[in-house]
Structure formats: structure tokens, C-alpha cells
Amino acid sequence: MVSRSKLIIAVALWGFSGFFSLLAATSSPNDVARLPIRDMTDRVFVPISAGKESAHEWVGQIIDDDQGFLWFSTRDGLDRYDGSQIQHYDPSPKDSDYGVFVQECCRYSLSGDHSGKIWVGGNEALYEYNPQTERFSPLPFAPGKLQGLVRNINQDKNGTIWLATNRGLTRYNLSNGETVRFLHNENDPSTLSSNFVRSTLETKDGTFWVATNTGVDSFDRQTGKVTAHFSLRNPLQKPASTGNPYVRLLEDRTGTVWIASARDGLAFVDRQQKKARFFVACCRRRTGARGMGDTRRPVRRTLGWD
């Protein structure tokens, strides 16, 4: 089996204290600091052979399960890697060996729950992978209860499944199948900042965060209301007509919430100032970031760039 460490591009973020004085001096709604890049020599990357399968040009998400397998969501389906070989799960409906599967699956949403099961999101669908039977099965949703493409799957500490879709945020109760959808309302500031939900995160203090294509919201799961909005707008970026296609959230050991977005780059949430503070690589023109990871060292963060 493979190691449980993440497949990431390492970028060290050193000297945070030196940046904070610069951040405080700026007057824009969201702040920006220049980030030096430091080459790392403690990571060795080896290409994974796909055997007879062609290599994928696009991988949306990577997770590891309780058995040590690595799972890759791609445009061409789902791959499972055991350290030596790749098992490809064809999304074609004709592939009956692995149960029901559809073409719209796998691209963005892949997650493991507390019991070790794998969840795969599709177009208005959610699939469950059972490691004992090695089969996928669709969860039954009433017509209209799950709408849009599922872009992110997250299970909170209470066992509730949260689905980020391009038609709002959907809450799914595994025990009774109850489904509730939360939507944006431009006349109600206590609703989500957008219906294009990208991801969610539950932090150690119990706060539930929802990332959309335009902002990051602090969401009260008891009332279904947003208690705080954080604009996801990098001041160095020119005004854009479209929002972020990808947004990922991560909490570090200090409780800080980090944001990686394809359009606006790397930032962290400043709860006291109610703003996002952005970092820009000093030697790069592009600001987009696709993903993040957390190493075991106390003062290092890892970041995936375009």
C-alpha cells in the first residue's frame, strides 16, 4: 500500500510575522503580501505508470482510504492506486462489474466518510463505494432534492453529509434520507454569497465554512443562516466577469482557515478584521492556486500552483 502522505507540490511559507506588518498597512478591503518561493529538496516525485490505461491530463481530487489505497478523480473516471498498479473504474453505464456508474461522475467530488466508505459525486447524483463488495451504488434522492453537479462532499462530526453543488448547498441525513437545500437570495444577507458552492469545511472550534465562487461564508447549521461573509477577491486581480471555478479550504494547527482559489490565489481568513488576506508569489505572474496540503512540520504549508 502507498504512504498516506499527500501528493503535493511543496512551497514553504516562512516568516509569517514579517508579513503581518505589511498586511496591516494596506487599506484595500482584502490585503495582499508578497510571498517568497523556496525550493525544497526533501520531496522526490516519481511518475505513476497507468499500465495499459492512458495517462490522465486532469485530476480533480486525490484522497486516501483506510486500507491505504489512493483514489484519483479524473475526467475519464475513477482510479485506485495500490502502490504498484492502477485499477480504473470506467464511468460507462456498460461497465456493470462495479455497479451503477455514470459519465458525469468523478470530476470534482471524491470523499471518504468516518466508516471508511468512499463517496463519489455526479450530476444530480451521489454514489457510495463499499470496500467489502467493491461496488458502487447510487443513493436514492427524491426528484428535485439534489440539483446540479456535485463539486465537493464533506461529512461533519455529527455524520451529516454536505454536498457543494452549482445549485446551492445540500444537507443530506444518512439515517433517514432527509435532504435540505440552502440557496442564495440577493435580498437576504443571511443567505449564501452565491449558489455556485465549491467546498465546505468544519473547523475544530465547530465553525462550518462554505466556499462559493465569490466568497467564503461562516454558516450556522442550526439556523441555516450565514453569520459572516468574507469576500473572495484578490486586490491585485483585475475585475472579473466570472467567479472562481475551484475553491478549497484547509484548517492548520493554529486554527487558521486557508483558502486556495483558482482565480484569486492563496489567502487566509482574518476573523477579527473580517477580510481575506492574500499571498502572492514574488516571482510568479499568475495568482491562481488549485490545492493545499499540511505537512507534519509546525511552520510549513504546502500549496499547489497552476
Produce the secondary structure layout.
Elements (H helix, E strand, L loop, with lengths): L15 H10 L5 E5 L23 E6 L5 E5 L2 E5 L4 E4 L20 E3 L5 E5 L2 E6 L4 E4 L11 E6 L5 E5 L2 E5 L6 E4 L14 E6 L5 E5 L2 E6 L4 E7 L15 E5 L5 E5 L3 E6 L4 E7 L7 E5 L8 E4 L1
Parallel strand pairs: 1-21
Antiparallel strand pairs: 2-3, 3-4, 4-5, 6-7, 7-8, 8-9, 10-11, 11-12, 12-13, 14-15, 15-16, 16-17, 18-19, 19-20, 20-21, 22-23
The helix content, as a percent range, equals under 10%
The SSE string, one letter per element, is HEEEEEEEEEEEEEEEEEEEEEEE
Which segments are poorly predicted (pLDDT under 50) over 5 or more consecutive residues? 2-28, 293-306
Q: What is the radius of gyration computed over CA atoms, rounded to a whole number of angstroms?
A: 20 Å
Helix/strand/pairing category = mainly beta
Please state how the strands of the largest beta sheet are arranged side by side: 1-21-20-19-18
Largest sheet: 5 strands, mixed
Individual helix count: 1
Relative strand content: 35-45%
Shape: globular
Number of strands: 23
First-residue to last-residue Cα separation: 29 Å
State mean pLDDT (0 to 100 scale).
77
